[in-house]
Amino acid sequence: MSQAVESRGVTVRVPGKINLELVVGPLREDGFHELATVFHTVGIYDHVTATPAATWSVQVSGQTAEGVPTGADNLALKAAKSLARRYGVEEAAALSIDKNIPVAGGMAGGSADAAAALVACEALWELQVSRDELEPLAARLGSDVPFLLHGGTAIGSGRGERLAPVLARGELHWVLWVSTGSGLSTPEVYAECDRLREAAGEPVPDPAPSGELIAALRTMDTSAVGAALRNDLQEAACSLYPVLEDVLEAGTSLGAQGAIVSGSGPTVAFLVGTQAQAIDLSVGLAARGPAGDIRRATGPVAGAQVVQSVAPAGPPTFTG
Ligand code: ATP
Questions:
Q1: How many folded domains does the chain comprise?
Q2: Is residue 309, in this structure, part of any structural domain at all?
Q3: Range of the domain at 246
Q4: With bands split at pLDDT 50, 70 and 90, how would you rate the model's confidence at 289?
Q5: Residues 6+ apart with CB under 8 A from 55
Q6: What is the whole-number distance in angstroms between the Cα of residue 111 and the centre of ligand 1?
Q7: 17 noted as active-site residue
Q8: Ligand 1 centre and the CA of 212: distance in Å?
Q9: Is 78 a catalytic residue?
Q10: Which of 17, 78, 99, 113 is catalytic?
């Protein structure tokens, strides 16, 4: 391989997501639950760089790298290989992930890296495949992967892979409580949700997003968005991770306008009206809440984006 070819590389920045609403419907025959969810990207990012290589590999560094697999199980590597298979690319790639999204935190970090790897390798191999065309491949990799190709705020149905954008003007300010201990396994949280529902003995209706949240997002009325936040997995996440009740209580008593466990948890998202309030809440939570990492972020933000592309013949091109 020539020196010029080896210097090719593409870096993609990808955010994590929270679910503003997660309505969990009945268990389907394929083992998944029918969902109605409102995804929302927040500005906490991983960076995935793809470079040409003789063999496939992935390495992970960064603030939240611990525990992320570096073998064939890594979702970014799976995504890159499946793209190569689908489009007949014979070249391999070395992936490098700079990880900042909490792992097993309910923010879809693995799915985000998979979406980023698809976008990075598509650009590296100059496949001319659009985001929409990448969607079926993304959906096979994981229910949240299609959303992270696009980002923003969107309704997800089916397993979450069927998307419709939500018209949302302006931005929302979030304070995130991130567990410094172990994460939660998504299948275990769903199983706990099923167990609690069976014990309650109530029928589970087909899921639908609420009109209140969609209306509140149109005007970005923070208190209305805060009141409409809903997560059907929250009770199950709290049952498996009881400190979450204290976290929710601490943020609410410190003035958050909304509080919700993100996806299957254990990350908790608090909504406030301004950046100044976000600073106040994060200081208060760090001082008085249960131990955890406190992060601030705004949303919505764009999904996976190329931020640096190094071509064989020239200097790096920076975008975004
Ligand atoms: P979700 O909200 O999509 O259910 P999550 O945010 O709770 O997921 P992830 O951070 O996506 O959880 O990680 C789930 C598991 O996926 C991890 O425990 C890890 O073993 C595995 N995994 C594979 N590839 C990655 C990756 N690139 N980044 C993070 N986790 C990965």
A1: 2
A2: no
A3: 172-299
A4: confident
A5: 92
A6: 7
A7: yes
A8: 31
A9: no
A10: 17
